[in-house]
Write a structure and sequence with these properties.
alpha/beta, Rossmann fold, 4-stranded parallel β-sheet, elongated
Length: 161
């Protein structure tokens, strides 16, 4: 799925940049010349990245805040389109997307480790409780508790491997 980018700036500034982003990053690029159309676009579609003209943010901070709130999970980058070349904006976008990808990878690894730890702790607890209960189990409870010990041990071993 290609990266989706929304450029929020006057059309004269965004068209050459949008064309270069489409070509260089193989991205889907939408443009919005003003706050109202940008908010409508953000409500219609989820974007990976939103590029906001710094002039818009500086002249109307309330509108910029509304754009930032509506952008949901999109990465937001303020760019001064008046002084930025298309190549510079492409480098900024590439760096921001790389950073976001790296952050997502780290977050997934941390979540996986936390989940792994939590499952291991729960299985160890179940295994310990089942082993303790097995010591005092009646003859009719023993087969079920032995089965629970085997299952817990197998699951814990699978998690460790």
């Amino acid at each position: 799925m290609p990266t989706s980018i929304l450029l929020i700036a006057p059309e004269a500034a965004t068209q050459p940049i949008a064309d270069d982003l489409r070509r260089d990053l193989a991205a889907e690029v939408a443009t919005s010349p003003n706050r109202r159309s940008a908010i409508a676009a953000l409500r219609r579609q989820d974007f990976d990245l939103v590029l906001v003209d710094e002039a818009l943010a500086a002249t109307d901070p309330t509108s910029a805040d509304l754009i930032y709130q509506t952008a949901a999970a999109a990465l937001i980058v303020d760019v001064n389109f008046a002084i930025s070349s298309s190549a510079r904006v492409t480098r900024i976008v590439r760096a921001a997307l790389t950073r976001r990808s790296h952050d997502r990878t780290q977050s997934r690894a941390a979540a996986t480790a936390a989940l792994h730890h939590e499952l291991n702790a729960a299985l160890s607890g179940i295994l310990l409780e089942a082993q303790l209960a097995l010591r005092e189990a009646s003859p009719e409870q023993q087969p079920r508790l032995e089965h629970l010990v085997r299952l817990s041990t197998n699951l814990r071993d699978l998690l460790r491997s």
